[in-house]
User: Fold these one by one.
Assistant:
Number 1:
Amino acid sequence: MPSAGRSPAWGGPGARGTYNSSGYETGFHLIGNQMGGKNGTLRNFVAGYQTPANSPHMRGLEGDVTNAVNSGEAISLGVLPVYKGTDPAIPTEIRMYAVGNKGYRLDCTAYNRATGGYSCSQRSSGAKLSVP
């Protein structure tokens, strides 16, 4: 059961987030739209904070993978929501792993909180390894 003040359905794919005291909530794509993630598939979404957790932080990591694909690299991608907070309907982290056939590597965790942030142990694009 979602905590008080939260939208239990968060509006579903494509819906605008609702505002509460913690910030905007949105539907995070697990596999980003620019990477072929489906907008109309509920299993591709989790509840999350829009700014800055989803955009620009998660979107930046997705952009990294998309750029590698656009440069001709075949990528194997895994995305895992991690639920260890007090609200069982909202993951606290989104873990993203990507391995390319030409050496691309990404191993990052995006933090699903009002302040966003991410940390990476590998990000071969050369972009920042972390945002607090």
Note: Residues 50-131 form one domain.
Number 2:
Amino acid sequence: MTWSAGYQYGPEFFRNRAIVRKRVSDAGGYCELPGCALPFAAVDHIIPNAEGGSDNLDNLQGLCQTHHDLKTAEEARRGRLRRSGKRRPREHPGRA
């Protein structure tokens, strides 16, 4: 899915485009992780909804595609562990 300026977002952000516009503006066009100068590519939940996070602006960050993919892979791994019941998940570490 895409939304203006070619940025990509998951379907959850189509609930409130004002949130997306604000996040794009705040990110200044670049990944928000310290030291990364790659272009902004995705709005990401710092703490995922599945782990108790909200859609509030203070729980959103703009990430480059590389950092978003890495963070999403780690969140998926934690989700599989939660569903399998094999191991109690650690507390969420926060920012990617």
Note: Strands lie at 2-3, 7-8, 42-45, 60-63.
